[in-house]
Amino acid sequence: MFFNSIAFAIFLPIVFYLYWFVFNKTKSTQNALLIIASYYFYSCWDWRFLFLLVFSTFLDYYTGIQIEKGKSERDRKFWFWLSILVNLGFLGIFKYYNFFAVSFSELLNSVGLQASPILLNVILPVGISFYTFHGLSYVIDIYYKRIKAEYNFVDYSLFVSYFPLLVAGPIERATHLLPQVKVKREFNFENAKEGIYQIIWGLVKKVVIADTCATYANAIFDHYTSMNSFSLILGAVYFAFQIYGDFSGYSDIALGTSKLFGLDLLKNFNYPYFSRDIAEFWRRWHISLSSWFRDYLYIPLGGSKGGLWMKIRNTFIIFVVSGFWHGANWTYIAWGFINAVYFLPLLLRNSNRNNMDAIELSWNFNSVKTIVSILFTFMITCVAWIFFRAKTITDAVLYVKGIFTNKDFGFQYLDNERYNYELLLLIGLFVLVEWNSRTKIEPLSGKKSMLKLALAIMAIMAFGTFSDYKEFIYFQF
Amino acid sequence: MKHFLIYTIKILIVVLLTAIALDGLYTYIFLQSENRGKIETVFNSEQQNYDVIILGSSRANNHFVSQMFEDKGLKTFNYGMSGGHLFEASLMLKLMIERKYTIKNVILEADLNLSNDHESEGISAKFLPYIHNSAVIKNHFETEKNFNELYYIPFYRYVKYDGKIGFRETYKIVTGEKTNALDNLGYYPLIKHKNGNMKNNIHNLNPLKRNKYYEEIKNICKANSINFIAVMTPMCENVVGMNYFDKVKKAYPEIHNYENVVVENKYFSSCGHMTDAGAKMFTTRILKDFFYK
């Protein structure tokens, strides 16, 4: 059941009605309903993986209590590592086992030892990377005594399995969501209205921007060897907007949906393509994951407290691990590595926290500098996206090489019977709208909101891509 | 909560009004379309007189050279549609009759397409803008399982088939961008491709015993005193399951089998589609057999 499906359009109002009109007596009834709805939502993909979700939830719930109750440090450590190893074990088996088996076998073959890998014929459970990280952060926080263990299983289950964030985040923190789950929610009109705006704007991003860009990006990436330089550049730009529209659109719908139930989720995107350097980009892109890696990997590794080499080492570790989190493929690792390389000059010059202020433009040289910085950051981000999107690293390298060696910057007719330049106007318009609303959560609220809402609805209906349906990219992670 | 429910109703009204407005706008634009495709052209046309019209799939579109008919003094148009099934061919003929076309002969390519009586969504979608403007189109789609959504939900058909009749198509109609569908009197010549697929396996294909839309076309012709000529057109040499054509002949004895009139691969662009040279050889034979006895 996707957020942009008819099934979800039926599911959401039913749950909303039951939540506010039937099960709104206590927080327990509200939570119970949301749990049932969330499990139903999840089982629509594959009901068998529901058992994995419930097991993972119970494991972290139980180990969390045991860690808190642990009489000795040894006990606490035992439960802590049990939870970490089982969680990462599931992730390893379902997501990474085949990758490691194939890579190891290729390594052996390359040194002349014949080996054929034993592969597992399993499909990746939807959202496993997200709910595993929910559970991990919870257990780690209890172990380090940042939070108390949750003793109410229903409340804890809701924190892990809440349907708006279950399959593609945002990756919530117990400190943020659990306190909200512990109290009865009261309906707030303004909050719910804001939720509607976010849902509609998320749909615009998904069906108008992401899916339309996907049609062009796919046509270019899938036939990159026959594309000219201009098409290859446009392909990277289209993919940049595809993945942004797709994932931030999903996050907007998730946050908006959650607001309808009186629960605020963590902000996941903050207009990342208006970043002035790569450090700022990573403070604005997939914020819940970046901050997760910062808090649970970078800082425990020593963060930036040690010497220069330690900072460099830690930076490369979190970017490469972050890339690998996305999928079991060398292309994701390369993407993470490239971002670490981008980050390195900022780290060496100690300027990675330079652009913390809001972006303001006026008629002066500084503004020109800002615009150039934004365009440069976007450009290098697009180069990294090529590695993320390509099937193999060789494809990505040849793609980049094609940009520089083909030298034909003319219009090209693509295999899908469309011209390569066709989307530029749509993207330009989208960028303009986002730029004008960069200080807000979404562009629809504020003055003349009903008119803006009507235009957004019209855009979805008239310009949306529906027949060439594409799943949310981040569902596969 | 009351405020929110009122607000939600307002949004639903906006959605409905937008859908109605867009539906009206898109339909109006499609009603002006004249040079984009065969379906739009027929729908928006006045009464016409033809000696020969050709119906069928791409195997009609690429195989009957209209100009050769014209050269013999026969006013002809090739209405074969690439990707189309008999569902669309039948509807096309019904539309022509609705528009009072006078037709002396219908040549129907009836071979591989006899194996199903489903619609071909990519082609049938192009009739949908006119579903409220033509009883013939409405009735033709009435038996389809998604008829109610397509007919009653405003703008649904444009959303569902956005790739065919969505914004891009309406934009192209407005800007008057032409396609080549109407060039060469509807015939689309193919050239020889180095990498053309010259193998085909139709072993598992079986003609339906009574294809609903084939029968419809036959009956329309009979009712309107149109000479009905059904033919099987050539396939390349490397086809597995060539007895399919015998099965067709057995089920439909009136269909003329021209499958082996052109066989050499050099006359084929792909296994089921002849090149221009092959099409000319084939058309010569059709003209000789049916129009100069």
From TrEMBL, chain A:
InterPro entries: Ac/AlaTfrase_AlgI/DltB (IPR024194), AlgI (IPR028362), MB_O-acyltransferase (IPR051085), MBOAT_fam (IPR004299). Its main location: membrane. GO terms for cellular component: plasma membrane. It is found in: Cell membrane. Keywords: Acyltransferase, Cell membrane, Membrane, Transferase, Transmembrane, Transmembrane helix. The keyword Thylakoid does not apply. The chain crosses the membrane at residues 6-23, 78-98, 118-140, 368-388, 449-467. It is a multi-pass membrane protein. GO terms for biological process: alginic acid biosynthetic process. GO terms for molecular function: acyltransferase activity. PANTHER family: ACYLTRANSFERASE, PROTEIN-CYSTEINE N-PALMITOYLTRANSFERASE RASP. Belongs to the membrane-bound acyltransferase family. This is Membrane-bound O-acyltransferase family protein. It comes from Flavobacterium hydrophilum. The lineage of its organism: Bacteria, Pseudomonadati, Bacteroidota, Flavobacteriia, Flavobacteriales.
From TrEMBL, chain B:
Keywords: Membrane, Transmembrane, Transmembrane helix. The chain crosses the membrane at residues 12-31. This is SGNH/GDSL hydrolase family protein. It comes from Flavobacterium hydrophilum.
